Amino acid sequence: MNGKKKRGTRTRKGFRHYLPYYLMFLPGLAYLIINNYMPLYGLQLAFKNFSYKKGISGSDFIGFKNFKFLFATKDALIMVRNTLLYNIVWIVLGVVLGITVAILFHEVRGKKAKRFYQTAILLPYLMSMVVVAYLAYAYLASDTGLINNSIIKGLLGKENGVSWYMEAKYWPFILTFINQWKSIGFGMLLYLASLLGIDNSYYEAAMLDGATKWQQIRTITLPLLKPTIIMLVILNLGHVFRSDFGLFYQVPMNQGTLYATTQTIDTYVYRALMQTNNMGMSAAASFLQSVVGFIFIVSANAIVRKLDKNSSLF
Amino acid sequence: MVSKDQKRWRAAAHIVMILLSALALLPFLLLIIASFTDDTVALTNGYSYFPEKWSLGAYAYIISNSSTFVRGYGMTIVVTVLGLVLCIILTSLTAYVLSKRDIPGIKLMNLIVIFTMLFNGGLVATYINYVTIFNIKDTIWALVVPSLLMNAFNIMLVRNYFQQNIPEEIYESARIDGANELLIFLRLVIPLSVPILATIGLMSGIAYWNDWQNSLYYIDDKSLYTIQAILNSINESITALASIAGSAGATVADLPSTTIRMAVAAVAILPVLLVYPFFQKYFAAGLMAGSVKG
Fold first, then answer.
1. Is the CB of B21 less than 8 angstroms away from the CB of A297?
2. pTM here?
3. At a CB cut-off of 8 Å and minimum separation 6, what does B285 contact?
4. Which chain B residues are closer than 8 Å to A287 by Cβ?
């Protein structure tokens, strides 16, 4: 990009002076063009009957037909519902659990104990979703899983286990558990940063007044965390139209019988594109996700910027 | 002076932390124990923390088919190193330019970067772009380039670091000495920014190490499978194991498949588990850096 040479008061130096900067910007710019800007051209696929032969621009324009077909299916409602509901529940749970664990962690004295706890609790966050799917399988597999064999048949003495990978009704709980299991360490870190920023003299004064720990949490910690909480919730709300593809695709082992509770926009787009060869509907869903997602993120950031300029993205 | 109330809270904190730590670690322990379980025992009793019979059978199979896993690890290492080096170069260069507030057009340049955080073309458009225009399918670039190479978030993080930690006078004196911009960047800025670049490098390295999505989208050629892609294909069907291993004679029935599955996963995560305690501090710092923006 070749910025125009301004002869304003701000910049008296010539283009030659700035040329090295523009050259240094080029590689990054090239990558953004390839990875982020060129795909924007492909968004028109949502309105086309795509064929690989004709290419993106050569394919026939069909208006809103892809969207009509998409919304004629049950899938549209299910995937939007799942994406939104899971996100909202997890945002709330993430706040509650994150703060609880952060406050408790903050109470722990002893460097070694702290280090051990943090190392352990953060470990799941380091793992890829494929690995998580293996871990879940060890517990949930209907024939060889630990839950069916050791707990349901062993401890409870029942004859038959549960076919976890066949029954959709269990998955809201399983996915919620796994999501929190994986991300609680990160949530803890997030709020711990704010906890560490609270001036100790508040607590000292409260203790002189004989306040219990619980009173201190209610009257000092939580009110002081409020801005952080609000900020994180709003920023997360900006992403309610996106879902963790890995969690919803890998962990339920791509089982069709579970779609009622495991299908989200991201898994639908992938399956329609790669597995059921339904490029039109996939492109329509993907387009909606991009556009609605954009509106959500921009609104969330606009709100955040009003509250606290430094926390917004732009 | 520690009051009774405080003591109780500390005790409660320890108990909850121990429970949470156990909850975090136990699944990994089960996976590892399962991989050392005798296959028939696992098949009849299920995976268990206390198997009736231990066995190295799963690992014997892996060793006899080690070429697949060695190649998988090789691919993972090549992709991770290549990706994180390119990521650091691209991110720091771009961030350095954006850290200069007085460049004509800097607002537009910032906007070009920030817009990518707000709007995303989505999977379909991105996939078609890479496959039809760049013909990236079944090349190593498919594992390095799409989505992971550089992101706006990291650029802003590094840009802010440059602005806050490198005083303007340093640049001035370097310029007086006649150093050009690239030299200043390489000899001055980079050495002064090791902490933030190490953080970005670590997080990017983890992202590459863990990535299976690019393999899922763009790789069919089994010789390009990373360790995560191998795990993914076995997850899809255990028969994949026989076909990846290329042992034409071996059928699924011959495989100790119940425990092999777990052994393969154990082989994939053990190195990470072993080095993780040593970089845990930096991992946590990296997550914190990313969470509190600028």
1. no
2. 0.91
3. B199
4. 122, 124
Looking at this protein, which amino acid is placed at residue A170?
Y
The structure tokens listed for B28 are 């990994």
Task: Tell me whether B31 touches chain A (CB under 8 Å).
Answer: yes
Please state, in angstroms and rounded to a whole number, the distance separating the CA atoms of residues B207 and B213.
11
Listed residue (B95, B29, B82, B31) closest to A120, CA to CA: B29
Task: Look up the domain containing A196 and give its range.
Answer: 73-311
Chain A residues close to B235, C-beta within 8 Å: 130, 133-134, 137, 250, 253
Q: Which residue has the tokens 């299920």?
A: B46
Q: Which amino acid is at A182?
A: K
Q: Which residues contact B291 (CB under 8 A, 6 or more apart)?
A: A186, A189, A190, A193
pLDDT over 70 (residue B278): yes
Cβ atoms of A232 and A193 closer than 8 Å: no
Number of domains in chain A: 1
Judged by a CB distance cut-off of 8 A, whether residue B253 touches chain A is no
Q: Are strands A60-61 and A48-49 parallel, antiparallel or unpaired?
A: antiparallel
- Shortest Cα distance, chain B CAs vs residue A226, angstroms: 15
At a CB cut-off of 8 Å and minimum separation 6, what does A283 contact? A45, A46, A48, A50, A66, A273, B124, B125
Q: Is residue A219 pLDDT above 60, yes or no?
A: yes
pLDDT exceeds 80 at position B17 = yes
Pick the closest to residue B43 from B29, B58, B28 (CA basis): B58
Q: Which domains does chain B have, with CATH numbers?
A: 66-246 (1.10.3720.10)
Q: Establish if A56 belongs to a structural domain.
A: no
In a domain, A204, yes or no: yes
Q: What average pLDDT does this structure show over B29-55?
A: 93
Q: What is the pLDDT of residues B68-122, one digit of tens each?
A: 899 999 999 999 999 999 999 999 999 999 999 889 999 999 999 999 998 988 9
Model pLDDT for residues A36-74, shown as the tens digit of each residue? 999 999 899 999 998 888 888 888 899 999 999 999 998
Is residue A40 a part of any domain in this protein? no
Chain A residues in contact with B8 by the CB 8 A cut-off are 213
Map B197-225 to HEC letters.
HHHHHHHHHHHHHHCCHHHHHHCCCHHHC
Beta carbons of A263 and A78 less than 8 angstroms apart: yes
In this structure, what CATH number is given to the domain that contains residue A255? 1.10.3720.10
**B122 and A273: CB-CB below 8 Å?**
no
Q: Does residue A30 form part of some domain?
A: no
- For A101-156, write each residue's pLDDT tens digit: 999 999 999 999 999 999 999 999 999 999 999 999 999 998 889 999 999 988 88
Nearest residue on chain A to B47, alpha-carbon basis: A146
Contacts of A22 in chain B (CB under 8 A): 97, 103
A159 within 8 A of A153, measured Cβ to Cβ: yes
Give tens-digit pLDDT for A259-287.
999 999 999 999 999 988 888 999 999 99
